[in-house]
Amino acid sequence: MDDGLTMMDRLGSAARAAAAELAFASPAAKTRALEAAADAVLAGQAAILEANARDLAFGREKGLSPSMMDRLTLDDARIAGIVAGLRAIAAQPDPVGAVIAEWDMPSGLNIRRVRTPLGVIGVIYESRPNVTADAAALCLKSGNAVILRGGSESYHSSMALLQCMVVGLKAADLPEAAIQMVPTRDRAAVTEMLRAVEHIDVIVPRGGKGLVGLVQAEARVPVFAHLEGICHVYADADADLDKARRVVLNAKTRRTGICGAAETLLIDRAFFARHGAILVEDLVKAGVEVRTEGELLDVPGTVQATPDDFGREFLDMIIAARLVDGVDGAIAHIRRHGSQHTESILTENDATAQRFFDRLDSAILMQNASTQFADGGEFGMGAEIGIATGKLHARGPVGAEQLTSFKYLVKGDGTVRG
Asked: Against a cut of 0.85, is the pTM above it?
């Protein structure tokens, strides 16, 4: 067995060589690889579910929380979703070589700015085995090689999906080293990935605060990441009651363990004066523990909030709730407690919504929509490799286009500079 450094050198060298070939691979070859991988996932469904059963047993032994077990679980519907995601990415326009801008200079030069792959991408993730397929597909589509390091609890599922992706590469005569996985559960491998500046061009972590914080603190390689998904839903005075009730419940309860789940509900005092605490009552009836304060505590079943509950990513059937003074009160709260991930305003007043949009700088801002839509697939990207909340290069869902940089192609005709 290689030590961590030797293994990373081996994987990284192979990935760098594969990336050099992928950079000029035809769009047709990449599409063929993704379609063949989708076919392989469908054909290998039984084997994938068997591997997932082994991971679920491991997760139960580790004492994973219900939300983490939900992230880990594959079933027929989720495998169908993986297949659909692969086919959707295959069908998208190829971003590599796309002309972003073109212009002529008085000197006679023609200049084009065109999309180009980043090179080698390292993806470090926890629990969710579908990330294996999503990340591999997006990297391939964008002409990048990828080194995957899945969570120890999803090891067998991820390996099964990796084999399907390799089937696709073989079918299209693309280098097998374009998609690799660190073949160990040893956490030392993560440290070596974070230091592998000669092999990896960017790291994308997908997981909880502990993982992402570690990556951001220790990485020498550039990172696309969000630390937490502290998503807010704000019910404005001019919200439609039926829409608000529907969106709030979905934003919290559809899937609690994803980064787009709502963690704080803000209610305009004017909305409360008109409709009472009905949004809180709906959540309590749905089995959500609502941590709140003031008048909202009068709702049976609510719990006294602590200051730390505002600005906490629960990833569970728990939400913090608070009354605020209008949209500016909501904006002030989100600026103080948010993580610049996703915020939604519920209002029929477009001017109020525009104020919310203008004065907040989260990666995703919504009006009258559930924060659970904070997902690359729902944005038409087929899938995503993660949500980025930083200010440089990529923000929001990171799809194939966001995994490219650009270069300048300059043409002259014996042109010299005076």
From this structure: no
